[in-house]
């Protein structure tokens, strides 16, 4: 069992932070072996352990810090994905903004919290708390197992404002005893948290994580370049295509099973959107009385009982035209790693749902 800190390494780190075991050291000492191990060696160890996993080394930078000049109350190790974290003036990924995975060691070196956290440099405690709560809503119904949502914001890291900001900016975490952090277990949770991080950013949309409006000025808590923003949107679109295909195939197979006792109808069921786009529906099936059934499928990778869905003008028109022969089927858990499930099947959604549709795009025309 490989530990992140051996007994001697932990004792060295403690002596580095607390001179004579009592007084908190004030200044950083880069020549101290404990400093070198924490800041330099630990990122190397963790990067080597991530080789061959889903996390791309090309896009991942691991940084560790005990402070700059003044020794910090909270030592940390951050796993920075260049897609979700901006670069500073030195062209290095920075923890000041963005959203990332971070291992936070409390002031007493007793507990470490591996968490999804938000860059806290330009946000106040209330802003960070609101941001974290919004992000928790995205993943709260996911299978978190022994990860904990930071619902109460009550774990302790340190006494000053900075540690309090770290707590308020935390979305979800796994707590470890600092003396007993197993490296392989830590890596397992890093990978698990990164999947949740992808959901937070890609499922909700980059725009909601990028800009913060205040009365004074526009502040960015996730600064993303135009090129990076375009790449993330492309990634999100690819993810949505995968989610959509999984959801549609699931509904298609469900329809085949539903009509198994009516083989003449079953053999006519078509997964139309697999080969043709723009019909206004994804699957053409049949009711048991022989009437045609036109199914539009909306899916999410989240384990949710609700979904925000988007309709094209064509889908809206066809739904209104087909009436009670049109069904909107909503699928959650549409992921290769999960078992999809149907949240709801709404017959004639134009009658029951479309009066609550929200216009999000407008078309104009100008001619000189």
UniProtKB/TrEMBL annotation:
Location of the Type IV methyl-directed restriction enzyme EcoKMcrB subunit DNA-binding domain: 24-186
Pfam families membership: MrcB_N (PF12102), NOV_C (PF13020)
Top-level taxon in the UniProt lineage: Bacteria
Name of the protein: Uncharacterized protein
Protein NO VEIN C-terminal domain sequence ranges: 248-343
